[in-house]
Known about the structure:
By secondary structure, this protein is α/β, with parallel strands linked by helices.
Amino acid sequence: MNTPRLVPGAALVAVPGRGLALRTPDGAFLRVDTGEVPAADLLRLFAGADSADSADKADSGAGEADAPHDATGALDQLVAAFQDAGYATTHPPRDPTASRPPLAGTTLLLLGDRVLTEPVARLAADAGARPEPVDPDRLTARARAAGPRCAVVWCLDRPVPPGLWDAADALARDGVAWLRCHREGAHAWVEPAAFDADGVTSADVRLRRLAATPAHRELDAYWAAPHERDGAGHTAVTAAYTAALLVGDLVAGIDDPAGRATAPRRFLLRRLDLRDLTLTTHPVLPVPACTPMPATAAAP
């Protein structure tokens, strides 16, 4: 019989003067009433001793007058209560090397500036993806040929030139995960990931940002202007942070074909201040298609 163990992330804590407490994997603390079972026995058991050994040790340390009655049975009942609550298991611990990486089988098509694509490729490969550089003019055909587990990540260390992402915006409708980021001055923008036709595209983000600022004419002109490197680009630290946000979005959504498991998260636009690593989030929704205005009769 396998020795009972606490589930990963759970821990028993001996609190001075208050007995045992259980720290759950979610970080909450629950008080444990061990009843007639000595707290040391429960700690020993979950540390790897079997129930018979724990009961024998408890019996040998107790006097005849206060010897526990049926210590083994009481300990087994206590362990069963942990198991019923989901905090203990008798299954052998899983081999971490045998677990399936979250991005296993995912083809990751990468485009953009190396300061960002290199850390994205490294982190995604650690999560099981197959990073593959691709030229912009071959992106659509390569993405559609890559199969159901394909994602595109396009990273720029500069503003997005007008029209650059127009073709890529259509990829999510074909089931290709579409993630992107770019930089405007000292701010990096990580746009919401799109996993299906209901996702947020780069065109949606532009329209929402223009609608949210009184300087919409100036912002539109800024996007349209050519931009030389301004010296405020990514460092290794800010690039790693940005790459982690992108790969985290991909891990969170790639196993759900529609990305619905993380619906609240998928509609967040994030802005990273490269000067102090302050991250702010902004909800953004897709812009619905407009119905054409009906033709009006000519005025008499």
